[in-house]
Amino acid sequence: MSVGIEKVGFYTAPYYIDMVDLAKARQQDPNKFLVGIGQKQQSVIPPSQDVVSMAANAATNILSDEDKQLIDMIIFGTETGIDNSKAASMYLQSLLGISDNARAFEIKQACYGATAGLQMAIDYITLHPDRKVIVVGADIARYGLNTSGEVTQGGGAVVMLISNQPKIIQFDGRSTFYSKNVMDFWRPGYTKEAKVDGHYSNDVYIDFFNRTFKQFLQKFDLTINDFSALTFHVPYPKMGIKALRSVAGEDDPSMESIWHEFHESIIYNSRVGNLYTGSLYLSLISLIANSDTLSAGDRIGMFSYGSGAQGEFFAGILQDFDNSKLKHAVDQIINNRNQLTISEYEAMYKQGLIDAANTANDLSGDSSRFVLKGRSDDKLIYRDQEMNIDF
Ligand code: COA
Predict the structure, then answer these.
(1) What percent of the chain clears pLDDT 90, i.e. is strictly above it?
(2) What is its EC number (predicted)?
(3) How confident is the model over 162-182, as pLDDT tens digits?
(4) 233 catalytic per annotation
(5) What distances in angstroms separate CA 2 from CA 63, 154, 162, 251, 320, one per listed residue?
(6) Whole-structure pTM over 0.70, yes or no?
């Protein structure tokens, strides 16, 4: 019985800022952001996009009508929920026209939510091999203007279709996990901006990676050489570099290929920034879309981390997959974004913090198929701009 990722889609909003511009505006040496953090650009999410519209935009080009009828579960991993009660998946179900005979719900555990959803999807397909599940990781990372976390903001969505036809990655159900109640990053209910003990969060992340990775090797009698690539939750590229350094020396000739693949896996993250639940999966997309050296049968390790904190290490086997269509689609989304000045970004960021019972978003600069029109009498209104339908 095979189970894994049959299709994968990505979306980020049509705006970005350059990290050199941000560094200059914040009186920082640009190399701190480019080299010290590893970030080149950062997506800026306008008020016309939220996790629902971004997920719908990520999913729309990958799901066929047949898929929509076979989907039994819509699992939405996010820590940027749009309602304290109603799940983002309910809106997504109607925007995409997925069968009503589905379970639709949201999962929260910081950046780990999509991985919890993925593991649940794998279990479900193992028991119900003729059905399909979609797993979403969508978020907007906000730390605040002029904070040390600002350089690690970003946002976007990754959507994975999980089935018994794993055309991209096949999973075998093996994983190791570790959790502990710590205060490294959190977001109190009254604010849209995260609280973070940044340096402490780095230490907890590396500790959890080492625990779960080493336990995985021991439990399944493997060594690091059994992996062709290791991918990580990437809040910012330097975090992944630090984690990989903790188990693979950069100057060790036997680790050359794992470092080569790692650099392929952060190409997109270094231009999009942090998308919390979607970051590991954007890194996986970056690896399989950009690497010319991986081939079918290669084992790819994945480390998922959600502050608070939960870590999980698992692995998948790359399938015989033509990556050209995926690479073209993701390159187009990232390359076609419009660059903002820092003052334009600051204005857009502040607009994104405003919320009220009645709002109307400016849609003029956003030609994405799905947008958030605003709120009417406390109800969110989405728009399918291609079909001219409001939801
Ligand atoms: N050229 C090159 N590198 C430079 C530099 C320069 N001019 N100036 C500083 N650096 C390096 C530092 O040496 C440091 O590298 P290191 O981490 O390898 O030691 C890096 O840039 C960052 O500098 P630092 O002083 O630690 O930055 P900071 O105190 O402003 O905070 C974070 C950095 C990541 C802690 C902060 O952005 C943050 O809190 N981010 C959000 C938290 C997060 O994403 N946590 C991850 C777990 S999920």
Answers:
(1) 99
(2) 2.3.3.10
(3) 999 999 999 999 999 999 999
(4) yes
(5) 20, 34, 11, 38, 14
(6) yes
**Domain that residue 202 falls in:** 172-322
Mark whether 185 and 100 lie in a shared domain: no
Judgement on whether residues 19 and 107 belong to the same structural domain of the protein:
yes
Which residues lie closer than 8 Å to 41 by C-beta, 6 or more apart? Answer: 16, 17, 18, 19, 270, 271, 272, 273
Report yes or no: 22 and 150 within 8 Å, Cβ to Cβ: yes
Claim to verify: residue 386 and residue 293 sit in the same structural domain:
no
pLDDT over 90 at 189, yes or no: yes
Q: How many angstroms is it from 285 CA to the middle of ligand 1?
A: 25
> Which domain-ending residue is among 295, 322, 349?
322
- Please choose from 151, 152, 270, 274 the residue to mutate so as to test ligand 1's pocket, defined by most ligand atoms within 8 A of CB: 152
Find the CATH number of the domain harbouring 223.
3.40.47.10
d(CA 13, CA 48): 9
Say yes or no: CB of residue 32 within 6 Å of ligand 1. yes
Using pLDDT thresholds of 50, 70 and 90, give the confidence band for residue 124: very high
Most informative mutation of 32, 42, 145, 183 for ligand 1 (most atoms within 8 A of CB):
32
Q: With a 6 A CB cut-off, is 148 part of the ligand 1 pocket?
A: yes
Residue 264: active-site member:
no
Residue 1: per-residue pLDDT: 80
75 and 193 both lie in a single domain:
no
Cα 249 to the center of its chain, rounded Å: 27
Which residue, of 271, 299, 322, is where some domain finishes?
Answer: 322
Nearest Cα residue to atom 40 of ligand 1: 149
Q: Using a 6 Å cutoff on CB, does residue 36 contact ligand 1?
A: yes
